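Narrative of accomplishments. A recurring question from our advisory board has been how the design workflow behaves on a single, concrete structure rather than in aggregate. To address it, we present the structure tokens for one chain from the evaluation set, followed by the sequence designed for it. No filtering or post-editing was applied between the two.
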């Protein structure tokens, strides 16, 4: 039977989920959300939910802290006070912890994202122990107490040794039973996400904040769909190099841009570490669309068409708005690679566009 407090807690969780759904577009753009993600949960400030609270009577009795002071008086009684206390009701803010999987489910439901099916990739297998039955021998740590108790009780009743007035159960060696296990090969779909970002002078803090927010939600959704997943990060100006996650979001250069350097870095990374037949590969490139030359843009299209796109489940290109970038690279992709179904592009001019960008990337469930 479910207790009343459990029912109330479940109801409260449903209310919280409803508030998150109602304001999902806003939550997708909250920068402070990411700083509180921890290892497994995200703390989201949820406005407008009243929590149960006690109401007290008149506090007119004297006691500690009572006296002639008025609200706003300074503690040392020197000078004028700061004025009377406020008389407006404060806004109720409740912080709730929501699991990343739960948050990803809400994201998928609201954006109507289908579950991702591994796309013709070989599944990696891992060893897993399962308890599959009972046996008469085994280590004491695996002894099944309830079954052992029932076995001894049954034996004593059948032999007439059981006394209801003195219900003492005496175990014998033959009564003891133990859990047995079997090692099985558990299929595990592995995936890798390779993030690439232009960090040239035209990509400022505002542009990288947009990248940071979108990459977080991409990561959350893909991790919900795969048991094993790796994330790799490449930054580039005219040259590309692999960095860690923290550097990916913080680094800034002031050089030019050669996008092909990032694509070559991703190609080399896949050839070295990820066999396409055994890995689901997702590639995302973030840029303001400014490239060094038309010839480099054509080379990018060649690398994509001949190498990266055939090896990956999806190549996502997200172009963020910048006052300094030409914004032409997305047009080059549309012109030369319009027939590539797994190439998805999106434009993010501000935080409000992140919602639609994520939906564009995953609507087809690639």
């Amino acid at each position: 039977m479910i207790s009343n407090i459990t029912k109330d807690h479940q109801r409260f969780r449903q209310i919280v989920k409803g508030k998150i759904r109602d304001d999902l577009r806003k939550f997708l753009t909250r920068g402070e959300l990411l700083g509180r993600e921890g290892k497994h949960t995200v703390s989201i400030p949820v406005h407008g939910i009243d929590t149960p609270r006690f109401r007290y009577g008149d506090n007119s009795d004297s006691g500690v802290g009572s006296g002639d002071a008025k609200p706003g008086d300074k503690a040392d009684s020197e000078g004028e006070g700061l004025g009377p206390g406020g008389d407006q009701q404060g806004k109720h803010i409740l912080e709730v912890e929501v699991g990343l999987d739960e948050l990803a489910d809400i994201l998928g439901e609201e954006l109507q994202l289908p579950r991702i099916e591994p796309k013709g990739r070989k599944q990696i297998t891992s060893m897993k122990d399962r308890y599959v039955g009972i046996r008469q021998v085994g280590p004491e740590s695996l002894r099944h107490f309830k079954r052992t108790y029932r076995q001894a009780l049954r034996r004593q009743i059948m032999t007439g040794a059981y006394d209801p007035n003195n219900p003492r159960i005496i175990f014998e060696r033959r009564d003891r039973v133990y859990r047995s296990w079997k090692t099985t090969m558990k299929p595990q779909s592995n995936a890798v996400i390779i993030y690439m970002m232009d960090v040239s002078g035209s990509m400022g803090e505002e542009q990288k904040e947009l990248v940071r927010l979108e990459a977080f939600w991409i990561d959350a959704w893909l991790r919900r769909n795969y048991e094993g997943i790796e994330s790799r990060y490449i930054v580039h100006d005219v040259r590309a190099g692999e960095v860690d996650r923290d550097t990916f979001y913080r680094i800034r250069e002031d050089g030019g841009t050669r996008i092909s350097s990032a694509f070559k870095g991703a190609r080399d990374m896949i050839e070295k570490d990820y066999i396409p037949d055994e890995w689901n590969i997702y590639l995302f490139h973030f840029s303001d669309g400014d490239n060094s030359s038309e010839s480099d843009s054509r080379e990018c299209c060649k690398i994509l068409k001949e190498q990266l796109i055939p090896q990956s489940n999806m190549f996502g290109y997200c172009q963020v708005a910048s006052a300094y970038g030409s914004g032409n690279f997305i047009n080059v992709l549309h012109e030369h690679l319009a027939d590539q179904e797994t190439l998805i592009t999106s434009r993010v001019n501000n935080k409000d566009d992140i919602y639609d960008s994520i939906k564009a990337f995953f609507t087809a469930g690639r």
